[in-house]
Amino acid sequence: MQISLRAGERIFVNGAVLRVDRKVTLQLLNEVTFLLESHVMQVEDTTTPLRQLYFVVQSMLMDPLDVSAAKMVFADQINGLMGSLTSESLRTGVMAVADLVAAGRAYEALRTIRGLLPIEDSILETSPISTKVA
């Protein structure tokens, strides 16, 4: 797999943070967990249930030495979400995320959550009581 990074960009590889000082292309030649800086969610952006779930899954990739703690939080969040979601598309998506995490495919789980965020946003925008922080 090849990844191109711009000057100053960071990538998280197996828990290590790497920053490049010039444009570079990396070739990942073996199995590795990584997360591009552009896909990293900051804690202040975790304003909705799915964004909070994203942050927990992201933690699994960024801190692989402490995955067990993140998996416990993830399980609690999944249970809470499944008990409160009324949207069938969100329920199906969240179950797919749970299956991906159980299979050790956290990166794909993040991609799935990113695809669900517009659905969550549209539901929260039409809800009379929004949980979003302005």
Structure description:
This protein has 134 residues and is an alpha+beta fold. It has a three-stranded antiparallel sheet with strand order 3-2-5, with helices on one face. The protein has a two-stranded antiparallel ribbon with strand order 1-4. It has two domains: 2-38; 41-126. The protein has helices at residues 49-62, 67-84, 88-102, 106-126, and strands spanning 2-5, 10-13, 16-19, 24-27, 34-36. The chain has four helices and five strands, in the order βββββαααα. The model is unreliable at 130-134 (pLDDT under 50). It is globular. Strand 2 (10-13) and strand 3 form a beta hairpin. It starts with a strand and ends in an 8-residue tail after the last helix. 51% of the residues lie in helices and 14% in strands. This is Flagellar biosynthesis repressor FlbT. One of its GO terms (molecular function) is mRNA 5'-UTR binding. One of its GO terms (biological process) is mRNA catabolic process. InterPro entries: Flagellum_FlbT. Keywords: Bacterial flagellum biogenesis, Cell projection, Cilium, Flagellum, Repressor, RNA-binding.
